[in-house]
Design a protein that fits this description.
single chain, Helix Hairpins, 0% strand
Protein backbone atom coordinates (compact mmCIF):
# COMPACT_ATOMS: atom_id res chain seq x y z
CA UNK A 1 0.00 0.00 0.00
CA UNK A 2 1.40 3.36 -0.97
CA UNK A 3 0.65 7.05 -0.81
CA UNK A 4 -2.55 6.60 -2.83
CA UNK A 5 -4.09 4.18 -0.38
CA UNK A 6 -2.95 5.14 3.15
CA UNK A 7 -4.36 7.93 5.23
CA UNK A 8 -2.39 10.19 7.53
CA UNK A 9 -4.37 8.65 10.40
CA UNK A 10 -3.20 5.18 9.41
CA UNK A 11 0.40 6.39 9.33
CA UNK A 12 0.05 8.10 12.72
CA UNK A 13 -1.49 4.92 14.16
CA UNK A 14 1.37 2.82 12.77
CA UNK A 15 3.99 5.11 14.34
CA UNK A 16 2.05 5.18 17.63
CA UNK A 17 1.89 1.37 17.77
CA UNK A 18 5.62 1.09 16.99
CA UNK A 19 6.49 3.54 19.77
CA UNK A 20 4.08 2.16 22.37
CA UNK A 21 5.42 -1.37 21.85
CA UNK A 22 8.82 0.02 22.84
CA UNK A 23 7.51 2.17 25.72
CA UNK A 24 8.87 5.32 24.08
CA UNK A 25 6.03 7.73 24.98
CA UNK A 26 8.11 8.86 27.96
CA UNK A 27 10.81 10.18 25.62
CA UNK A 28 8.53 11.88 23.10
CA UNK A 29 7.80 15.31 24.50
CA UNK A 30 7.36 18.23 22.08
CA UNK A 31 10.96 19.46 22.49
CA UNK A 32 12.57 16.10 21.78
CA UNK A 33 10.28 15.38 18.84
CA UNK A 34 11.02 18.82 17.37
CA UNK A 35 14.73 18.07 17.79
CA UNK A 36 14.13 14.81 15.96
CA UNK A 37 12.45 16.61 13.05
CA UNK A 38 15.35 19.05 12.82
CA UNK A 39 18.04 16.39 13.16
CA UNK A 40 16.55 14.16 10.50
CA UNK A 41 15.91 17.10 8.15
CA UNK A 42 19.57 18.04 8.60
CA UNK A 43 20.62 14.51 7.69
CA UNK A 44 18.54 14.79 4.52
CA UNK A 45 20.13 18.14 3.75
CA UNK A 46 23.62 16.75 4.35
CA UNK A 47 23.18 14.34 1.42
CA UNK A 48 22.94 17.33 -0.92
CA UNK A 49 25.37 19.70 0.78
CA UNK A 50 28.01 21.11 -1.58
CA UNK A 51 26.61 19.11 -4.49
CA UNK A 52 26.21 20.53 -7.97
CA UNK A 53 23.03 20.11 -9.99
CA UNK A 54 24.78 17.29 -11.86
CA UNK A 55 25.82 15.60 -8.60
CA UNK A 56 22.21 15.77 -7.41
CA UNK A 57 20.98 14.14 -10.62
CA UNK A 58 23.45 11.31 -10.01
CA UNK A 59 22.28 10.92 -6.39
CA UNK A 60 18.63 10.78 -7.43
CA UNK A 61 19.29 8.24 -10.20
CA UNK A 62 21.58 5.91 -8.22
CA UNK A 63 19.43 3.26 -6.46
CA UNK A 64 21.63 3.06 -3.35
CA UNK A 65 21.91 6.82 -2.92
CA UNK A 66 18.22 7.26 -3.66
CA UNK A 67 17.47 4.69 -0.96
CA UNK A 68 19.41 6.81 1.56
CA UNK A 69 17.33 9.87 0.56
CA UNK A 70 14.17 7.80 1.05
CA UNK A 71 15.33 6.67 4.49
CA UNK A 72 15.93 10.26 5.58
CA UNK A 73 12.54 11.34 4.20
CA UNK A 74 10.96 8.52 6.20
CA UNK A 75 12.79 9.64 9.35
CA UNK A 76 11.50 13.21 8.93
CA UNK A 77 7.97 11.92 8.30
CA UNK A 78 8.18 9.63 11.33
CA UNK A 79 8.99 12.52 13.66
CA UNK A 80 6.34 14.78 12.10
CA UNK A 81 3.70 12.07 12.46
CA UNK A 82 4.76 11.28 16.00
CA UNK A 83 4.75 14.96 17.02
CA UNK A 84 1.26 15.38 15.57
CA UNK A 85 0.00 12.16 17.14
CA UNK A 86 1.39 12.91 20.61
CA UNK A 87 0.17 16.51 20.62
CA UNK A 88 -3.20 16.33 18.91
CA UNK A 89 -2.44 18.04 15.62
CA UNK A 90 -4.54 17.20 12.57
CA UNK A 91 -1.92 17.49 9.85
CA UNK A 92 -4.48 17.77 7.04
CA UNK A 93 -6.19 20.68 8.77
CA UNK A 94 -2.87 22.34 9.59
CA UNK A 95 -1.74 22.05 5.97
CA UNK A 96 -5.03 23.48 4.69
CA UNK A 97 -4.74 26.45 7.06
CA UNK A 98 -1.10 27.08 6.10
CA UNK A 99 -1.82 26.86 2.37
CA UNK A 100 -4.64 29.37 2.74
CA UNK A 101 -2.32 31.71 4.66
CA UNK A 102 0.37 31.31 2.00
CA UNK A 103 -2.21 31.87 -0.72
CA UNK A 104 -2.74 35.33 0.78
CA UNK A 105 1.01 36.00 0.96
CA UNK A 106 1.76 34.58 -2.48
CA UNK A 107 -1.15 35.26 -4.84
CA UNK A 108 -0.66 33.43 -8.14
CA UNK A 109 -0.76 36.59 -10.22
CA UNK A 110 2.18 38.05 -8.25
CA UNK A 111 4.19 34.99 -7.24
CA UNK A 112 4.03 32.73 -10.30
CA UNK A 113 7.55 31.92 -11.47
CA UNK A 114 9.17 33.87 -8.64
CA UNK A 115 11.11 32.52 -5.68
CA UNK A 116 11.03 35.80 -3.74
CA UNK A 117 9.69 35.85 -0.21
CA UNK A 118 6.39 37.61 0.41
CA UNK A 119 8.10 40.56 2.12
CA UNK A 120 10.34 41.13 -0.91
CA UNK A 121 8.88 42.82 -3.94
CA UNK A 122 7.09 40.11 -5.90
Amino acid sequence: MGDNSKTIKELKDKVQKFCEERDWDQFHNPKDLAIGVSTEASELLDIFRFKSDEDIKVIMSDPNKRQKVGEELADVLYFLLRFAQMNGFDLSEELDKKLEKNNQKYPVEKAKGSNKKYNEEL
